[in-house]
Amino acid sequence: MNRNLITSMLFASGVLAASAMPLAAFAASAADSCCIAATTDFPKVGGNLGNQNYSSLAKINKANISQLGAIWVNSLEGGAKSGNAQSTAVAVNGVLFIETAQGRIHAVDGVTGQVKWSYNPGRGGQTRRGVAVGDGKVYTSTTGNYVIALDQETGAKVWERQYNQYPGIAKVGIVYYDHMIYVGTSDTDRGVGLALQASNGDEAWHFYGPAAPGTIGGDTWEGDTYLKGGATPWIHPAIDPELNTLYWTFGNVRAGSSQNGSTRGGDNLFANSIVAMDAKTGVYKWHFQSVHHDHWDMDNVMAPVLANITVKGQPKKAVVYGSKTGMYYILDRTNGTPLIGIDEKPVPVDPRQKSSPTQPFPRGGGFVPTCPTAEGPARAVPNFKTGCIFADHWDEPVLSFPGQGGGSDWNHQSFSQTTKLMYTGVGYIGSAHSLTEASNGLRPLGTPMSGGVVAVDPSTNTVVWRKDLPWSVAHGNGILTTASNLMFIGQPDGNLLGMDALNGRELWRFQTGASINASPITYEVNGEQYMAVFAGGSGLPFSDAPRGDYLWAFKIGGKVAPLPAPIPPALRRDITATAVEGSVVNNTVVLNRSYSGGAVGTVEQDTVNAMAPQHLRVPVGTTVTFLNPATNAKNHCATQFFEGLFNAGPLAPGQSFAYTFTKAGEYFYNDCTSPRATGKVVVY
């Protein structure tokens, strides 16, 4: 039996009748309060309770988008260029509310750009993902497990509560609905979603991500590993008021290592799942797990999107979620059953990992490739053992696609009520998995990190169009769509793009001065449509993404000039080792050795930095020697990629290979025996 259908069957049979209502009470309407399109305001991250990131405003349209310009920019933190700024603004009554990576919350006039008030919790900088607004208050979370409510008009603190019993309340998405706020946890042993009274912060209910023994899902954990199971709900949930249902997505398994499943047999619920629960009581209704017994860090952590769609001629209430796997899981949000069809298919297993023998595959396929390819954006770095998604691993790294930084990760996606399409930014990034990798897998050095935008028809789960972009746009690069069939997305190079939602054609771009890892929003004041975006920058997946603190606003006829283009992030996962001039090392690279303080290490290694030196600079015309020293025990190679200039080896200990570089450029290479070991030669 499909394990993801069991709870739906219980729901339908009345076993979970406490959370069930007659379907007649759920008759779809164009005005479902989950999915009323944003108009004058953009009152929450995601735009509406269904996280559609869609606005019915259309005064900015294809006929006048060429006249769209900035009207103001506010450097909110005095030019600070540090931290991870992943906060999306919200707009209520013409005021923008925004958090910064430096830790403060600001209220900014949406027309003039003037700061109305600022509040500093005094707990330093942190990653932020946007405030919630409701009941006359602005809600935020801080390090130290605090939730704070501020007066919406003045910024004065109304209440502050610390929840040390639920560690990890920081850098999480907060949602307000009907006098309650919903806040999750991140980076903690046992994730939990909390519902708090908006008036004073009192806890209304909580729901643990890793299920305890004796509860639904509690039998899917080996021993007491659920206590360190992770499964954190750190992104914004969706809410359907008609169904009185909240939909929360829970993250990857943390117990021991996200790459090691050997000590935690079972499916590990509710990790890698969407869970539907009663919005007022937290009572479980149903769940769907998209990755069983995850040991790849392939959780689907996008904010779930609610949409009313037509499937085979029948109106359906859908919830769409999915991200890292590059596949959408399109479910009936009344009971969790697949609307298009999702098949449990056999996958390769390693008994040592206690792997699941099957994984769910949605009919219609993925919106990115699910296997490495020889060419194109999904091409694999050479010498690694490769496999498709869910390829199993143990101690040898296995490179699969998409990696945990690929697919669409956690960026806010959009459902357009005019085109009826889902839009997501994607990253084409593979990852190598093994027990010896970092906690979430290895993104091989030198691998391309490109991306694009994909439009998917959720009524059939088919890709309608895709637009490739130079950089990954899967980490916070949210999408806004409007009733004029426009869509907007920001890039890591600082450019905000306006595109045709019907085909992805670029219509407009504006340089904001810093990487954009947030969603653009739109709002209306005195009958005029505005757009805003926060450009701050984040280290994922580009550690060198340009940073800033720029809150921008735009309207038709705006005349404020763009900022100078910053240095864009590297298009490939770069080597950060300090460059060594070839003349210093006799134009020689020693394979699979470390390099520090001008000295070559004495021990053979298979780490990523095991080239001595790892970053070599030489002028055009230089002959570089790649040496496998006689004291190494293994054969080694120097395989140049992707230009294919040379593939030297295997070289036995004591052997060398020489190559003359005749053209300026940046050339990556790695080892065939230990492909983690990677270096580059910069030719000038």
Q: How would you characterize the overall build of this protein?
A:
The structure is a single chain. The protein is globular and about 75 Å long. A six-stranded mixed beta sheet has the order 38-43-49-48-45-46, with no helix packed on it. A five-stranded mixed beta sheet has the order 1-31-32-33-34, with no helix packed on it. Strands 2-37-36-35 form a four-stranded antiparallel beta sheet, with no helix packed on it. The chain has 684 residues and is mainly beta. The chain has two domains: 3-380 and 393-432 and 445-556, Quinoprotein alcohol dehydrogenase-like superfamily (Methanol Dehydrogenase, Chain A, 8 Propeller); 580-683, Cupredoxins -  blue copper proteins (Immunoglobulin-like), CATH 2.60.40.420. It starts with 5 loop residues before the first helix and ends with a strand.
Number of helix segments? 1
Total beta-strand segments:
49
**Helicity, as a percent range:** under 10%
CATH class (first level) name of the largest domain: Mainly Beta
Q: Could you please say which CATH topology of the largest domain applies here?
A: Methanol Dehydrogenase, Chain A
- Count of distinct structural domains: 2
Uncertain segments are 5-31
Instruction: Write down the Rg.
Output: 25 Å
Distance between the termini: 61 Å
Largest sheet: spatial strand order? 38-43-49-48-45-46
CATH superfamily of the largest domain: Quinoprotein alcohol dehydrogenase-like superfamily
Q: State which percent range the strand residues make up.
A: 35-45%
* Class per helix and strand makeup: mainly beta
| Mean pLDDT across residues | 93
Main sheet: strands, sense, barrel: 6 strands, mixed
In CATH terms, what is the architecture of the largest domain? 8 Propeller
General form: globular
